[in-house]
């Protein structure tokens, strides 16, 4: 898919892009805007490039399996998913689906709204299936026997359908119809549950905090909150350390332990099952579409309860009201490092911040790190999964995303900038100038990597990742950094707002 997109790039579009870029650049220069508003002299990516980008937006994952060869292989499989969905929608009239169990043929009352099918795409990103009746989950065979059900369905319960690399690591489940006369009959129940089951996967890119939240946890919250705990989670691709890490959150959503559905010899029976989550948008929820108008603020509230986070709101006066707001610098060790972290911290301290530097990784204790982030009023970090910790920031806190050099605004916008507003987090970009980037030491100024980032983006995610994400460190200009912190201070609420009831 990617390959064909690439070959369709028209040279004419590229030169249009260059003209637009040149116009934008001169506009920027003319209007004497502050440097940071004028830091992308590359114009805007054209639609095709944007589409290609949209489908490849992901954090740098250290997924051992996400290698280039696999990516090639997987491209064939990908087509299947959308095709199934398309097929499904054409048969929507025929697929009489039962949500109010038992009734064999729901009377076609003069309702104008068609019944939902068993499986349907909730967005480009995720398919959700739902059925009620006699449901028997044969987990180790990835089979869900359902009576009644009009036809067989296959689905992958992970909210990343547009991303073949991720989906290649998600187990597919089959929803299989049966009836009282089926032969052979489906296996008999060995465990009966009185509450509904909810089946999901953390295959994909689990372990990368950004993907954990955007692909799994926020959709999970959106899909299961309305059960008020009376739901049994069936997890495919379960890794014990991952479950441990998020157990406090699961405890808020289910009154039961999480079941390892892939490695379970039992036949679990349910009166109702939901397979796969609803997905609205990256790191977010659209309250106008969610049950009960639930929003990402509710998600944050649930996280506060789960991890016992004391602060509802940030304040210029700081957590202890001593006039020292806390600045948290999210550090990175391998790529996209701050090369002058100590100087940055000193600059912050000189401005009256109480400064903390911390680097979360896969093994960080979630609860401890969540509390540290919740104690912060301003959080600064280079684009990367660590910024996902903004979910723990108190309302009104400021997130400063340091955007590495390389025309990456599209990536940084979708991943953190847009989600921040819904999370009640004030957002600021800090766009790294070439002079602040280590790339300047690696390439001559005329090199494509420095002169034409979008040409590099067009070579695909791997090229982009290698050039701008893996091999770039930043040394922030301290005057610019101080100016950014001053702006951040001004954005902070003057004093802590009273806790919500
Ligand atoms: C890419 O994603 C952005 C943000 O989600 C959206 O506004 C834009 O329309 C998308 N572009 C394409 C070409 O899909
Ligand atoms: C589960 O429920 C079915 C139907 O009520 C019953 O036939 C079966 O014996 C039960 N199985 C177990 C293990 O309780
Ligand atoms: C599933 O588990 C049951 C009971 O342990 C076993 O008999 C069966 O062979 C397993 N099926 C698969 C496909 O592994």
UniProtKB/TrEMBL annotation:
It comes from the Eukaryota. Residues 299-400 form the Glycosyltransferase 61 catalytic domain. The keyword Cell division does not apply. It is a single-pass type II membrane protein. It is found in: Golgi apparatus membrane. One of its GO terms (molecular function) is pentosyltransferase activity. Pathway: Glycan metabolism. Residues 68-80 have a biased composition (Acidic residues). Residues 81-103 have a biased composition (Low complexity). GO terms for cellular component: Golgi membrane. Residues 62-123 are annotated as: Disordered. It holds the Pfam family Glyco_transf_61. Keywords: Glycoprotein, Glycosyltransferase, Golgi apparatus, Transferase. Residues 104-116 have a biased composition (Basic residues). This is Glycosyltransferase 61 catalytic domain-containing protein. It comes from Brachypodium distachyon (Purple false brome). The gene is LOC100835033.
